[in-house]
Every structure is written in C-alpha cells, then in structure tokens.
C-alpha cells in the first residue's frame, strides 16, 4: 500500500523544511560554480542551500504564491538566482536560456507551505475552500467532488489514492451533495470520516482521498513524467538528477524511469537474452530515506524517498508512459 504524500501533522510541525537536504546536496557535490535547476522551487529551501554551497540556481514553479520567496533569494544572491514561472514538465524549455545545466532537483508533491494555507484547500485539517489547484487555474477539487458520477469518483480515489474503501466514500459523497454542493475541506473530511470511520492512532481517514483529488486536479503523474523526460533532454553527459518523492506511486515511476529494466519481465536463463535499450541514466543510486535525526526534527519527512542518477551520452528518448506503471483511472 502506498504511502501518503506529504503527511499532515499538527500545527507544531513547524515551518517548511526541505527533506533529505544533505543527501540532495551530496548528489551534486562539489557545487561551486555549477548550474542547477530547482524544478519545484516552493519556499526555496533547496535553492537557498544550493546557492549557499556556491551554485547558480534556476528556480521553476507554477504556484504564483511562491514569488515572495523567489524575490528574496534574487535580492540576496543577485544574478546567481533566476526564477522562471512555469510547470516543471517544461523545465528543459524554461531553462534553455541558462544552459549548460549541471543538475536538476525535483521535490514531488504538495509542500508544507501549501498545506498550511487553508485558503488553498489542500488540507483536511484546516477549513478552507475545496480547491487544491497549484496554479490557481483549471478544475478544482470541488468541481470533481460535485461533478463526477459515483463510479467515476470511486475509480479516481482508488487509482490515485489507493483507497480500498473508495466506493463507500464515493457513495457517501454523492448522497451528501444531493442536499447542497460540497464546498469546504472540513465538510468533505467529515463526510469521508462518517463513511469509513476512524480508529485511534490511524492516519486521518481522508488522507488518501485528498491525495487522490490533489493528484487529479494538478495532473501530477503527467507532470512528473513530463519533468523526468524534460530533465533527460536538458542534461548532457555527466549531468545529475535528484528526485524526492513522497509516496509509492510516484517513487515507482521514478525508479522505472531511471532503471527501465526494473519494470520489465524477468528473463529466463534458459532462453536467448533480450538486449535492452542503451542506458540514458547510469550510476543509479540506491534509494535514500530520512534518518532518525531528520524524522525527529521533521515528521513530514517520514515518507520521503530520494533517487538520483547520472546522465549518459545516449540521446534522450521520446516521451512514453510504457513501463513506468503510471496509475490510470478506470473508465466507468
């Protein structure tokens, strides 16, 4: 069962902290003079650390609310920091003017900064409009919750949230919206809790459903795949890629992208061996997780996984979902 993305905690969790920061910095070391793309800028935690280590950073984010953090780094570090608004699935195009690029770092999923802003609608712990749009544009979570048929909604919650009780939750949601549209985060969280109950010590019953809705609203799997292939196009031989993900669905995509053989069928030693495609990524590092010290400081780091690899000289592949196990919502 997949881990939840950026698990929510109490107000005492503290401000946003970039997870696995030391490990990310080590991926690109030595950093002095290197040019790194921070494809998921957020509050600028990775960018600041990279800048302080001597790198030039190109920060990319589609969330307009991050602009004050970007302006602060630009004021402090001058032309060593460049901010480019946009989606990380287009990072090769957005960073092209600043090439050559030595590395790309991606921190996938919703940030604690976004969770802490009730008006953004990401959190089931804070009352706010049922929104969840990172860019502020397009369909909101409320549109999905109030517009999808019961079976469509159940399939979405199962595919993107691995929610085993998705059908019961969808039935309760569609019954509740017959009275009035569901508009707030706490209202939806209460409906889900009523549908499946809550055991002491367990994660909040709305965790997986909120994850699924957020992923659907922001097309997160499509964005992730796009960003991985964009990094492959952008980086030359020896360039490094570091990706931090927060649940098993994302991590599986990253793992199979970096090492396609992981997603292929096992070969029998009694049959002729199939020769795989040339490797676009080499020196694929073993997955890293947060240690006890970081978990003590930052409970939100407990599901984080870092994967890193080095770009080979082989030309980039065309974008393809084949072999990446990207979750799909079954049609009703």
Q: What would you say this structure looks like, in words?
A:
36% of the residues lie in helices and 11% in strands. It contains 13 helices and 8 strands. The model is unreliable at 1-15 and 264-268 (pLDDT under 50). Helix 2 links the parallel strand 1 (35-38) and strand 2. It is globular and about 60 Å long. Strands 1, 2, 3, 4, 5, 6, 7 and 8 form an 8-stranded mixed β-sheet that branches. Helix 8 (166-176) packs across helix 9. With 332 residues, it is of the alpha/beta class. The protein has 2 domains: 11-112 and 220-264 and 272-311, Rossmann fold; 119-217, DNA polymerase, domain 1. The two termini are 23 Å apart.
What's the name of the CATH homologous superfamily of the largest domain?
Vaccinia Virus protein VP39
Query: So what's the overall shape?
Result: globular
CATH class of the largest domain: Alpha Beta
CATH structural architecture of the largest domain: 3-Layer(aba) Sandwich
> Which band does the percent of strand residues land in?
5-15%
**Mean pLDDT score, rounded?**
87
DSSP summary: helix tally: 13
Q: In whole angstroms, how far apart are the ends?
A: 23 Å
Provide the gyration radius in Å: 20 Å
CATH fold description of the largest domain: Rossmann fold
Helix/strand-derived category reads: alpha/beta
